[in-house]
Specification:
By secondary structure, the protein is α+β, with helices and mostly antiparallel strands. The chain is 19% helix and 34% strand. The model has no long low-confidence stretch (mean pLDDT 93).
């Protein structure tokens, strides 16, 4: 697990990007492992307003359908369109090319979990 990430109790990760106030979001290795083979991702729309803690998409696997919760409040500034044709990349690269969306945040960030806090939560 990369050390520069922050996490939610709903198993999303948040990473700052090189652009101020833009944050990249994905699901954790723990989450993708629990889901099994991912076959479809419903991404939010570009420009869509998202609210911290609210559903912003879905991930479908061979086991179940799981909701994606936005860890931040803001506007969707980018989506990973590569997931349309290859959603299984989340299984192999959850912290890399399996990212899901980027959010432009105008206010303060909510309290997120550190890597250690998240590891303790999932232990």
């Amino acid at each position: 697990m990369p050390s520069d990430l922050q996490f939610t109790k709903e198993h999303e990760w948040v990473a700052s990007t090189s652009t101020a106030n833009i944050y990249r979001v994905g699901i954790t290795d723990f989450a993708q492992s629990a889901l099994g083979d991912i076959v479809y991702v419903q991404l939010p729309k570009l420009g869509q307003a998202v609210t911290a803690g609210a559903v912003c998409g879905e991930i479908e696997s061979t086991k179940s359908v799981s909701e994606i919760y936005s860890p931040l409040t803001g506007e969707v500034s980018a989506i990973n369109t590569n997931l349309d044709g290859a959603p299984e990349v989340i299984n192999s690269e959850p912290y890399g090319s399996g990212w899901i969306l980027e959010i432009s945040v105008s206010g303060e960030l909510p309290k997120l979990l550190s890597g250690q806090e998240y590891t303790e939560l999932t232990a």
